[in-house]
């Protein structure tokens, strides 16, 4: 069962980003590198932008999974595709025209993904799902790494997995926030198949081993959970 692990560089050492990317890459390593872009407006934190993504995409073979926690993603998201991102996630709460934006991201050659903050329900967006390659359900309030996983998001993950099955979509279901060895099983059981982990990977003594351990737990759980990954 092919689950995917996307370590968040928010918990890495920003002065050594290329090395930190390599520390989780290679065979059996991370499937994606999760890049948290924050603008200090949509979330109360500031990280990095297009030039850093451009440099990082040259420094690693691991595809970049850019999570835009910014206002006006309609304007900025296409630039992240041009900078080399393999997947670009925008927040539905910030997008003026989510369908047009998803189509533009795809047309430019990246996977299009939409994120929901914890208080944003999935149901109003059921009809948009075929426009997306991935849906991201935040399992903490976006803005910071190292927060506690919000168990109250599990029913939303379950309902989203049901919608994906009902419509027969090849949509990946990513979760982000508080994912660790002690929470990943619950998330995988509920229906997630792409796992972002920051502190659980970069806070570990051996980040590559942490990626392998998270994947092994998630794969084992999905294999017995009774729903099928779309990848
Ligand atoms: O988007 C975010 C935070 O807003 C995440 O990607 C965090 O970086 C996840 O960190 P952990 O909760 O895994 O430490």
TrEMBL record:
Its cofactor is Mn(2+); a divalent metal cation; Fe(2+); Zn(2+). GO terms for molecular function: D-ribulose-phosphate 3-epimerase activity; metal ion binding. It is an enzyme of class 5 (isomerase). The keyword Transmembrane helix does not apply. Its EC number is 5.1.3.1. GO terms for biological process: pentose catabolic process; pentose-phosphate shunt. It holds the Pfam family Ribul_P_3_epim. Binds 1 divalent metal cation per subunit. Keywords: Carbohydrate metabolism, Cobalt, Isomerase, Manganese, Metal-binding, Zinc. Signal peptide: none annotated. Catalyzes the reversible epimerization of D-ribulose 5-phosphate to D-xylulose 5-phosphate. PANTHER family: RIBULOSE-5-PHOSPHATE-3-EPIMERASE. This is Ribulose-phosphate 3-epimerase. The gene is rpe.
């Amino acid at each position: 069962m092919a689950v995917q692990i996307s370590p968040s560089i928010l918990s890495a050492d920003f002065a050594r980003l290329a090395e930190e990317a390599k520390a989780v890459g290679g065979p059996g390593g991370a499937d994606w590198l999760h890049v948290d872009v924050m603008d200090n407006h949509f979330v109360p934190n500031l990280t990095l932008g297009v030039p850093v993504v451009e440099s990082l995409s040259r420094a690693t073979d691991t595809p970049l999974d850019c999570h835009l926690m910014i206002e006006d993603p309609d304007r900025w998201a296409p630039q992240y595709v041009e900078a080399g991102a393999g997947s670009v996630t925008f927040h539905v709460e910030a997008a003026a025209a989510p369908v047009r934006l998803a189509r533009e991201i795809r047309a430019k050659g990246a996977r299009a993904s939409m994120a929901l903050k914890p208080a944003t329900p999935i149901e109003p967006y059921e009809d948009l799902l075929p426009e997306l390659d991935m849906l991201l359900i935040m399992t903490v309030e976006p803005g910071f790494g190292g927060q506690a996983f919000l168990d109250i998001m599990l029913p939303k993950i379950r309902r989203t997995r049901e919608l994906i099955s009902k419509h027969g979509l090849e949509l990946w279901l990513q979760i982000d926030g508080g994912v660790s060895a002690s929470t990943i099983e619950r998330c995988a059981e509920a229906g997630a198949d792409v796992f972002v982990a920051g502190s659980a990977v970069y806070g570990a003594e051996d980040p590559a081993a942490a990626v392998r351990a998270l994947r092994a737990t998630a794969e084992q759980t999905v294999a017995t959970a009774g729903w099928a990954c779309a990848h």
